[in-house]
Amino acid sequence: MDPTLIAVLDECRKRLGVRMVANSGYRCPVYNSSPSIGSSSGSYHPKHMAADVTFARRGLRDRLNILRLFVELENIGRAYGGLGIGLYPSFIHVDSRTFGFGSVEAVRPARWSTFNWPRLV
Asked: What is the pLDDT along the chain (121 residues), one digit of tens a residue?
């Protein structure tokens, strides 16, 4: 794994004060391209530059805490010139596309979401 990405995740863990787990880190290209994964062809998982992270305690995986994790990673990412961050209902995808050891092209930070937002009333 990209050592700077690990440093970002460790900093996030320290700021939040709780244990976190990586649901997915490195993926071999064959597994990453399988339909069940639904990954893009430009995925950073096969480049050792991405992880899908969440809280170790399942009870913390609610919408508010996942959003807090997103905000914390966003804040930390600014110190590195940005991250790729994907918001999902129970985890966050984070990648080091802008600064990782495999990053040679000029890549901008990216954001995306499959988060099911509550309706505003």
From this structure: 899 899 999 999 999 999 999 999 998 888 888 887 777 777 899 999 999 999 999 999 998 999 999 999 999 988 887 788 999 989 999 998 877 655 555 566 677 777 776 676 7
Tell me if 121 is assigned to some domain. Answer: no
Alpha helix positions (H), the chain: 3-16, 29-32, 63-78
Q: Domain for residue 38, yes or no?
A: yes
Instruction: Find out whether 18 and 60 touch, Cβ atoms under 8 Å.
Output: yes
Structural domain count of the chain: 1
Look up residue 63 and give its amino acid: R
Measured CA to CA, the distance from residue 46 to residue 36 in angstroms comes to: 16
**What is the residue range of 39's domain?**
3-113
The CATH number for 52's domain is: 3.30.1380.10
